[in-house]
Amino acid sequence: MQTRSIALLLPLLTGPLAWAVHFTLIYAANGIFCARPALHGLWMGGLATAFMGIAAALALAVIGLVNWRYRRRWPATDDKGFFPWVAATLGLLSAIAIVWQTVPVLMLPACPSA
After folding, report:
1. Cα-Cα-Cα-Cα dihedral of 32, 35, 36, 42, to 10°?
2. pTM of the model
């Protein structure tokens, strides 16, 4: 029973989990690179934008792939559209959050001037 619950929850929570991992990675990387003066020039040289863009694209791809693969595998319930709707809604909200936190990378410098 426990395995079935986990197998059901993981695809539903893929969006929020991908967002959380993306959020943690981009802020941890930015903090580490900005705190190390030796790496500051490398990070400011475009690596920040590339890393955060790739991280966002990867997170969005994971959300899309999992939702696409599980669209017809949900368990039978009285309301057949419930699980796909919840997964798609959480995925969409998470995708919006990922884009929302990635857009400032294009508008602001990665590290403040010291």
Report:
1. 70
2. 0.80
SS3 state at 78: coil
Structure tokens at 39: 């790496």
Q: Which two tokens stand for residue 93?
A: 């909200």
Q: What is the chain's Cα-based Rg?
A: 18
Show the CA angle centred on residue 88, arms to residues 97 and 60, nearest 5°.
45
CA distance 112 to 19: 25
Distance spanning both ends of the chain, measured CA to CA: 55
pLDDT, tens digit, 9 for 90 and up, residues 91-102: 999 999 999 998
Q: Which residues have CB under 8 Å from 58's CB, separation 6+?
A: 22
For residues 11 and 70, is the Cβ–Cβ distance under 8 A? Answer: yes
